[in-house]
Design brief:
It is a single chain. By secondary structure, the chain is an alpha+beta fold. Helices cover 37% and strands 23% of the residues. The chain has six helices and four strands; from the N terminus they run ααααβαββαβ. The protein has a four-stranded antiparallel beta sheet with strand order 2-3-1-4, covered by helices on one side. β2 and β3 form a beta hairpin. α1 crosses α2. The protein is elongated, with a radius of gyration of 18 Å. It starts with 14 loop residues before the first helix and ends with a strand.
Length: 145
């Protein structure tokens, strides 16, 4: 199996997984203003929330997922960022933000936020394609929203 994602029935998951989603929803809807308030209302620890918040989604959230945040480490050479931009554009994504740090020790850290609503492939396939670019040292999916 090549995907990092599974669809499972919540009956087989611990109760706190659903409570993580509840806490995140409380924060997103501004019903609470802090993580401490959200986890208290949901009945979970802050540690549990932070451990799972970027990895547990309701079915509805997964279907309307539109943004992805990727961190890449690229070789410090001409055309490195250009090849990444070309690749994500070919996959029918829109780049929302790009932030590149000054290169250090021959490597440049790049943070990219993408609109993936019209993407031609899965996020796993995109990260694999980006990892295989000659100038790419590493790719990490930070978040999906």
């Amino acid at each position: 199996m090549s995907s990092d994602y599974l669809i499972v029935n919540k009956k087989i998951l611990p109760d706190y997984m659903e409570k993580v989603i509840e806490a995140r929803n409380l924060l997103e809807t501004k019903e609470v203003s802090t993580v401490t308030e959200a986890v208290a209302r949901a009945g979970i620890s802050r540690n549990t929330y932070y451990k799972y918040k970027d990895y547990v989604f309701s079915q509805h959230e997964a279907l309307v997922s539109r943004h992805a945040v990727l961190t890449l480490i690229l070789k410090d050479e001409a055309g490195s960022l250009s090849s990444v931009i070309s690749t994500v554009t070919e996959m029918n994504t829109s780049i929302l933000t790009i932030s590149q740090a000054l290169p250090v020790a021959g490597k440049a850290n790049v943070l990219i936020t993408l609109d993936i609503s019209g993407m031609k492939c899965t996020i796993e396939e995109l990260t694999k394609i980006l990892k295989n670019l000659p100038a790419t040292r590493s790719v990490h999916l930070d978040a999906i929203e």
